Structure formats: C-alpha cells, structure tokens
Amino acid sequence: MAHTKRKRQTKHRGNAAGTIEARGRTGRPPSPKERKQQDRSKAREARKLQPPTWKGAFKKAILAAVFMFVFLLVTNHFRVAPALIFAAFAMALYTPAGFYMDGWLYRRQQRRQAQTGRTGSR
To answer: What is the value of pTM for the model shown?
Structure first.
C-alpha cells in the first residue's frame, strides 16, 4: 500500500532562536559567467553604499559645466566669454548642490535599507 503522506524534500532550516536561515548553494558550482555576474552585482552594491564626497560632487559639477559651456557656445553663435562665465557660475552652483543632493539620496537609501533589514548582500 502506498504512503499517503509525502516525505519532506528539504530540511527545516530553523535555528534555536526560531529564525529561518537560507541555505547556501548546494548544487553545482557556478559557471565562470554566473560568477562574473555575481561579482558585478556585489561591486555595484558596494559602489552604491559609499557616502558622498566633495571631490565626487566637484567632478560632477565640472562635467555639467563642460556640457553647459559647449551648449552655450553652440547656441550663442560661438561667443566664448559669456559661455565661459556662465559655465564657471554653473560649476560654483552645482558643486554644493550636487554634494547635498547626493547626501540626501545616500541618507534615504540608508533609511530604506534599515527598514527592510538588508545588509547589502543578496
């Protein structure tokens, strides 16, 4: 006579505290392509978690000022002086604005991670 109750296929993973621990990979080892994708996602996650710096904000402001300079140079019939003055003003304005915006985004991301309880690894 056949059994009416199926046997469990996986083990219970609870510990003494009652939490369920996720098992690691128990099957085949990851292929080089899969390993590369995992490394990429971990590196991306690590990049996201860095706090803002003035150096990073300055680099972003320089890039924005260069784009602004080129745009104004083309639209102002290649007048260099006004485009240069406006680009310098934009860089002076974008540096602190970018730093404080990055700081706000960083703090928001930290709050979200604290709420979800993630530690940064998947």
So the answer is: 0.60
pLDDT for 47 beyond 90? no
Domain range list for the chain: 52-116
Opening angle at CA 103, ends 97 and 61, nearest 5: 35
User: Distance between CA 35 and CA 11 in Å, rounded?
Assistant: 26
Residue pair 37/59 in contact by the 8 Å Cβ criterion: no
Q: Which of 23, 4, 2, 1 is nearest to 12 (CA)?
A: 23
Helical axes 80-116 vs 54-75, angle rounded to 10°: 140
pLDDT digits (tens, 9 = 90+) for 51-85: 999 999 999 999 999 999 999 999 988 899 999 99
